[in-house]
């Protein structure tokens, strides 16, 4: 895998870590894969604070996705940048079509642990190219999860992607986390993804700019570390985590945006 694709091991470790501790997220598949792969993370990438954050972020995405599926029973689910994530097992899809998409080298690894079915498939593609759209029926309603993906796309690439899906699909619901421009600049010097060789990422300060001329609208910003989840941590760990990932500095670095096309 190239360095960007190796970043998938950071959230995988986080989800396996919190699942094993019995907090935030139940993810036996993450535990299984992490145990089998044994990728050698080091430094900040193996921090328990980051692991808590990765588990919490995924729990927030899971809850949002569950709520959106109840609102639109006909929408297909697309998880872009799925890595080795087991969201397709953690969240009940209710028999709808679910597609996990990532680069070919990632999907090759993923196929070792996941099996396709009549309602679940894995798609190896680059979302910056339009060919993958043919996998879906034009005009299909879509629920799109983009967790830990936007920061690897230049703002113009992200806008182009949103414009493509805005033109192709019917109703669309999107949840996407983003670095700020400040965070992207700081990432050159201090970011856990540096541990796997990634030094260039991109940020978004104005969500309205990336949806200009896409047919997609901004809905709202979500809380990345909601109180009901941080409450699962105790004592000094809770205090330290809130300072690292729930305070003003975190707000300056990370954002979680919801978009839609009606």
Which short descriptors sum up this protein?
disordered N terminus; alpha/beta; 41% helix; 16% strand; globular; Rossmann fold; 262 residues; seven-stranded mixed beta sheet; 7 strands
Task: Please describe the topology of this protein.
Elements lengths: L2 H4 L2 H13 L6 H10 L10 H24 L4 E5 L6 H4 L7 E5 L1 H7 L9 E5 L17 E5 L8 H14 L3 E8 L1 H6 L20 H4 L6 E5 L5 H4 L4 H11 L2 H6 E8 L1
Helix pairs in contact: 2-3, 2-4
Describe this structure in words.
The protein has 262 residues and is α/β, with parallel strands linked by helices. It has one domain (3-261): 3-Layer(aba) Sandwich (Rossmann fold). Helix content is 41%, strand content 16%. Strands 3-2-1-4-5-7-6 form a seven-stranded mixed β-sheet. The longest helix is centred in the N-terminal third of the chain and has 24 residues, at 48-71. Mean pLDDT is 90; it is low at 1-5 and 192-196.
- Output the radius of gyration: 17 Å
The CATH H-level homologous superfamily: Vaccinia Virus protein VP39
Proportion of beta-strand residues: 15-25%
Q: How many domains comprise the coordinates?
A: 1
SSE-based structural type:
alpha/beta
In CATH, what is the class? Alpha Beta
CATH topology: Rossmann fold
Unreliable residue stretches = 1-5, 192-196
Helix content: 40-55%
Task: Tell me the number of strands.
Answer: 7
Give the number of helices. Answer: 12
Just name the CATH architecture.
3-Layer(aba) Sandwich
What overall form do the CA principal axes indicate? globular
The average pLDDT value, as a whole number, equals: 90
Which strand order does the major sheet show?
3-2-1-4-5-7-6
Distance between the termini: 38 Å
User: H/E element string?
Assistant: HHHHEHEHEEHEHHEHHHE
């Amino acid at each position: 895998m190239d360095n960007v694709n190796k970043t998938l091991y950071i959230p995988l470790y986080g989800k396996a870590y919190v699942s094993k501790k019995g907090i935030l997220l139940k993810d036996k598949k993450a535990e299984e894969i992490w145990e089998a792969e044994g990728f050698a993370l080091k430094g900040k990438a193996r921090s328990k604070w980051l692991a808590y954050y990765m588990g919490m972020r995924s729990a927030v995405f899971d809850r949002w996705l569950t709520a959106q599926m109840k609102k639109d029973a006909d929408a297909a689910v697309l998880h872009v940048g799925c890595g080795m994530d087991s969201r397709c097992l953690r969240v009940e899809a209710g028999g709808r079509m679910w597609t996990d998409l990532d680069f070919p080298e990632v999907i090759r690894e993923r196929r070792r642990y996941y099996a396709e079915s009549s309602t679940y498939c894995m798609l190896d593609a680059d979302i910056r190219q339009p060919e993958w759209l043919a996998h879906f029926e034009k005009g299909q309603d879509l629920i799109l999860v983009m967790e830990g993906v936007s920061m690897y796309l230049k703002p113009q690439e992200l806008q182009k992607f949103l414009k493509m899906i805005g033109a192709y699909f019917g109703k669309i619901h999107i949840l996407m986390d983003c670095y700020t421009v400040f965070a992207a600049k700081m990432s050159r010097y201090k970011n856990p993804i540096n541990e796997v060789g990634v030094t260039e990422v991109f940020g978004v300060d104005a969500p309205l700019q990336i949806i200009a001329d896409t047919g997609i609208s901004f809905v709202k910003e979500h809380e990345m570390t909601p109180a009901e989840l941080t409450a699962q941590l105790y004592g000094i760990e809770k205090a330290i985590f809130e300072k690292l990932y729930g305070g003003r500095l975190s707000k300056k670095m990370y954002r979680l945006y919801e978009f839609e096309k009606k």
